[in-house]
Amino acid sequence: MELIFELAIILFASKIAGDLSVKLGQPSVLGKLLVGIILGPAMLGIISETKTLEELSQIGVILLMFIAGLETDVDEFKRSGKASALVGMSGIIVPFFVGYIAGIIMDMSTFEASFLGLLLSATSVSISVQALKELDKMQSKEGTAILGAAVIDDVVVIIALAFLMSMAGGEINLSMVIVKKILFFAGALLASWKLVPWVLKRFAKLKVTESVISGALIICFLFAYMAELTGVAAIIGAYIAGVAISLTNFKKEVFNKVETIGYSIFVPVFFTSIGVKASFEGLSQHLDTIIALSILAILTKLIGAAAGAKLAKFSWSSSLGIGAAMVSRGEVALIIAALGLESKLISQELFAILVIVVLVTTIVTPPMMKYFFNYRESQKKVKITA
After folding, report:
1. What is the rounded distance in angstroms from the CA atom of residue 209 to the CA atom of residue 228?
2. Residue 252 in contact with residue 210, Cβ under 8 Å?
């Protein structure tokens, strides 16, 4: 019964915190993230990090990215291919090289410093997706470029990580890693084209309640599972599944009902669980390192991705908004950090520091996005009143 009580607390607290955040002029997701820290072991200790809560959180982020896929304008996605590539690659190059230099300054070996650079190059736009929805930017050119860049970022960073770990003596077959990813994307594209419409049509004929929604969720979870199995993040698989269904006649029905399912329980659990992971034990001993790496993580991704967006001919405010959306490292960086710890590329001490840095990047992303994306509108208002 403890889980039932925790779910009640999470749902109540996340909705109240989100509402309060909006009233204070910030995206609601910021309040939901912060309330997780308050409820978690770092402060009140009402909510603890359990395997069940983690699994519910995983469903939440999968549904969040699935909904993002359903909302994607595919024609705009095709047009923004160049912009996504520029944002994704420049958002990798700048953090990697600056992170590598920082690692060398911290007396790391070449492999360890390279690993730090790759970790800082990672991006998770699951938090950014919620902020984009609240800012009504989900289907804009900026939103599409961000989502496309996130897919590119995930693939490139994971392949580079496999290459680094194989060079460092890890038991990783680089060619197999690349082949798995190619097979996943080829299979996902083929399934999106032929299998997804066929499955939904068959499910629509079943004489049971909500058969189409069940079929859509089956597709979503299978795509997410296969993505994870082949080394691509589960959120990318869920996003592709959403895009595939957005091209069918069932888009509106699936979107409306999955959004209700996701935002009523699973998505709030995901947002809150991020804060629950926070631990401030021994924080004071490494405060200078945490501050330095947090600033480095924020600025390198912001500047790198914004530079790519500017090369793609976005305005400065939009470019910085895109850069801000790529700042959150989220669950992707945490997975990479765990791999580094397991492979002894980082110490337990540095791992604990990096968890806090990832949390910082996640928390600052929504307010940064709101500031930069709303800057042009606020400037227009100033000119009109003047």
Report:
1. 30
2. no
